Amino acid sequence: MAKYYLGLDQGTTGTTALLLDENWNIAAKGYKEHTQYYPQSGWVEHDPMEIWTSILASIDMAVKEAGIDFHQIATIGLDNQGETVMLWDKNSGKPVYNAIVWQDRRTARYADKVAEQYGTMIREKTGLVIDAYFSATKIKWIIDNVEGVSDKIKNGDILAGTLDTWMIWKFTHGKVHVTDQSTASRTMLLNIHTGQWDDEILDVLGIPKSILPEICDSSMIYGYTDPLDFFGISIPIAGSVVDQQAALFGQACYTPGSVKTTYGTGCFMLMNTGDKPVYSENGLLTTVGWGLNKKMTFALDGGVYIAGAAVQWLRDKLMIVEKASQTEEMAVKAGNTGGMYFVPAFAGLAAPHWDQYARGTIVGITGSTTREQLVRATLESVAYQVNDNLQVMNKDSGIPIEVMRVDGGMVANRFLMQFQADIMGIPVDVPVITETTALGAAYLAALGIGDFSSLDDLTSKWKLAERFEPKMSADERETLLHNWHRAVERSKKWEEN
User: Fold this and answer.
1) How far apart are CA 477 and CA 383, in angstroms?
2) Class (C level, CATH) for 252-431+463-497
3) FRET label pair with 280: which of 197, 237, 298, 330, CA 20 to 30 Å apart?
4) Residue 375's closest CA among 327, 323, 305, 318?
5) Are the beta carbons of 287 and 182 closer than 8 angstroms?
6) How high is the pLDDT of residue 353?
7) Residue pLDDT, tens place only, 57-81
8) Tell me: the pLDDT tens digits for 278-328?
9) pLDDT value at position 169?
10) What is the pTM of this model?
11) Is residue 495 pLDDT above 90, yes or no?
């Protein structure tokens, strides 16, 4: 009987279940969206119970599409949104509050206060700048603001975790409460030098260690699905990693200096820096790539908050497009933006700017501006933001980046990929399998059950589908980037004024 590997990508807007056969070809895919909740300006939440339902639905879709039996799934690997975090009652299994999403800004001012006193210490220990983006201040907010939570913590009834922890806990019917080193590194609570929760930071923030999960490798058998909760069968869960690191792994970026960028709701560039953390002087984050055999591989991380989410905004709020696939044709039709620039700082600016108070800005509008030009400016904004991170990563790593591997939903947009290569001045490589977050999770799971013996076994699996070579002149590139940076400066510190 043929066996299959299940890679589960629990993302910001939905969950993808990817079934891969023994030759690592895609056998089937299931996808289910979940609701985005915006209770107040700057607040973003998810319903964890709805996410759990969407996980099961996406898996069921993939299995049915492949026409296989659940027993043919050899193992499950999963990746998660990263900083999105929740607390739940371990007795009832019910969340005490919605999951607070990585984009949420409600704790921005609290993060500023913590940064004033403890910024250097936390940066040195975690590799992160203090920001509302990370899980720690969100956990603190739930403890301080949701009635009854503090008392339940004292009674030992509360568990906390990022969404990997929640998924594994649900899969195993509450038997396993774990996370991996890469996801833990996104909480602002992990000491990346020891690989453990940091007592000093926990004390500063008033977060009890007792509610946090055990930190494990990114590839190992954590437990087995409980038949009560998972289609009546027991399957080993053997891979778990944060989404962007899953993509780095799925892109076979196993050597120091290799780089990938994932285009999703946000857009994230990671560079493998090997077995030692590299600190950036220009706004990039130092993070854990993955943990294997009790050893951590590190990465430099440049994050863009808003990428695909800007296209979603065009579709859902402005109703300029009916579906994202229309944007490529519209951008080409526009020919240019007419000198217009769109800085989609809906939730502030991430690396390399780190401005929590920047807001979305459109400059250069005239009476002749068209909706096609706004669509083009939206796509171009993604490429500009990625390039900003690339330039800083080149500088801070000391390693010249000669090519960038890309993945995620937006790489299907050929206009964006060509413009990205043009604005960076280096080739952009699109792999055969662009669902590399789910693929990376499945790779780790296969490694966890012993179906691969080393990373060398995985390197040959990566296959190139298309390379986009830069065609833009240096003069045109410099002019566009100069004006882009003028627009970025106008978006900064907007909320404070």
Assistant:
1) 12
2) alpha beta
3) 197
4) 327
5) yes
6) 87
7) 999 999 999 999 999 999 999 999 9
8) 888 888 889 999 999 999 999 999 888 899 999 999 999 999 999 999 999
9) 98
10) 0.87
11) no
H-helix segments, 187-321? 199-205, 243-250, 308-316
Q: Can you read off the two tokens belonging to residue 411? A: 């790489």
User: Which of 44, 33, 37, 119 has its CA nearest to residue 85?
Assistant: 44
Q: What gap in Å lies between CA 249 and CA 260, rounded to an integer?
A: 9
Same fold, 4-244 and 252-431+463-497: yes
Whose tokens are 């892109």? That residue is 251
**Both structure tokens of 496:** 């404070």
Q: Is 173 left (phi over 0), alpha (psi -120 to 50) or beta?
A: left
Amino acid, single-letter form, for residue 230 = F
User: What's the alpha-carbon Rg for the chain, to the nearest Å?
Assistant: 22
Q: Say if residue 208 is preceded by a cis peptide, omega within 30 of 0.
A: no
Which residue carries 């990929």 as its tokens? 417
- Tokens coding 93: 């299994």
Report pLDDT for 460: 87
Decide if 436 contacts 246 (C-beta within 8 A). Answer: yes
| Least confident range of 127-141, 177-191, 307-321, 349-363 | 349-363
Where are the domains positioned within the chain? 4-244, 252-431+463-497
Beta strands in 59-206 (DSSP E): 73-80, 85-89, 99-100, 158-162, 178-180, 190-191, 196-197
Judged by DSSP in three states, 372 sits in: helix
- Is the pLDDT at 130 greater than 80? The verdict is yes
C-alpha 340/C-alpha 384 separation (Å) is: 13
Domain covering 4-244 assigned CATH 3.30.420.40 in the classification: yes
Longest dimension (CA), the chain: 65
